[in-house]
From TrEMBL:
Keywords: Amino-acid biosynthesis, Aromatic amino acid biosynthesis, FAD, Flavoprotein, FMN, Lyase, NADP. Coiled coil: none annotated. This is Chorismate synthase. FMN binds at residues 131-133, 254-255, 299, 314-318, 340. It comes from Latilactobacillus fuchuensis. GO terms for biological process: amino acid biosynthetic process; aromatic amino acid family biosynthetic process; chorismate biosynthetic process. The gene is aroF.
Amino acid sequence: MRYMTAGESHGPQLTGIIEGFPAGLSIDIDLINQRLAQRQGGYGRGQRMQIETDQVEIMGGVRHLVTLGAPICLVIQNRDHANWGAIMAPTEPGDAVQDRKRAVTTPRPGHADLVGGLKYQQTDLRNVLERSSARETAMRVAIGALCEQLLAQLDISVLGYVTGIGSFTTQPAQSLALDLVELRAKIEHNDLRLLNDSDCQSTIAVIEAAKAARHTLGGTVQVLATGLPAGLGDYTTAGSKLDGRLAQSISSINAIKGVSFGDGFALGQLAGNQAQDPIEWTAATGYTRTSNHLGGLEGGMTNGLPLVINAVMKPIPTQMKPLATVEINQHQKAAASTERSDVVAVTAASVVAEAMTAITLCEVILEAFGGQTVSRIQSRMKAYRQELLER
Ligand SMILES: Cc1cc2nc3c(=O)[nH]c(=O)nc-3n(C[C@H](O)[C@H](O)[C@H](O)COP(=O)(O)O)c2cc1C
Ligand SMILES: C=C(O[C@@H]1CC(C(=O)O)=C[C@@H](OP(=O)(O)O)[C@H]1O)C(=O)O
């Protein structure tokens, strides 16, 4: 399976194409739209999210709500395009005078503006920021929600949630025995995707303080996945290691600056005998462990325990009290551009991280058990799980 997205933030639409997705999956469009709504949520998002009501349209690869095995084409309209028609029209010529007047020429530190402009020889940095915008992650969430539905058919669940915003941090879920249905009910109970509703007030206070001071915040997220058999991913080549593939897919999310697994950076301070997960065997479970410090990964492969991924998001780069920059035509000192912006988007990032994990897990599962139809993949995976139990 592979996917591709296209579309600018204020262009007409986002488009996604997924190739290699199996036939025979009955899809729930409401669930995709639910995930899109969750990505739009979270206290501290900017005015753009009041303009958009993201809804997926299915334009190919599905008939009567069942996948055909053909490339799947998804579309999400940008409602805000109506306000940007002339500026963002893909097929009408620009107005040279107007375009020069409107050009973005004061790159924001921390965004793609300056380096993207240098790389693509742009004099209007809008030509960079339109695509580097995290608007694109809406399509990744729609694709991830389809992958989540395929994973559900294989008894695999994925969940992303917020573990900290700015100075506020919470205790993550205990990762050895996890009920993701129960956890999902908890985090979907509040708009911030925090495990405990009681943490919301303090978190909102932190966000309000940042907003009042006209600066921005980052935070941390955790993604959990359960129901994974041991042996997804591989130890034999650099490119097939699942930890490497997950690190790439999570750190490809805009503003994510760090990814770790299990106890992550804390492992560096532990004695060796405290950091590994002792092995046990029972007839009912086959091989298992008595702890999960390593987040369900050994040698670039799942080990059958819950997968635990942690990621950190830097504070949003666009600042209402702009940082110093350089105007790119005159090379004069200037204040960076102040686009309308989110104060914080960690809640949204947790939904995107959930989607990216679902996509990466589907990729490795289809590589290992692929066979054009959902029922064939189900029976191959069932036989593999049975084989593991009997070893
Ligand atoms: C869901 C989401 C929403 C974001 N919203 C904004 C925003 O409103 N303003 C902004 O400057 N950056 C925003 N960002 C971060 C930028 O897109 C990101 O910092 C930029 O693309 C540069 O990429 P990098 O931080 O990965 O280097 C957002 C990121 C995510 C994941
Ligand atoms: C549009 C989304 O996020 C955007 C991500 C973003 C950025 O620079 O990354 C900048 C803002 O865009 P705008 O300038 O239109 O307000 C965010 O709203 C979205 O998440 O759907």
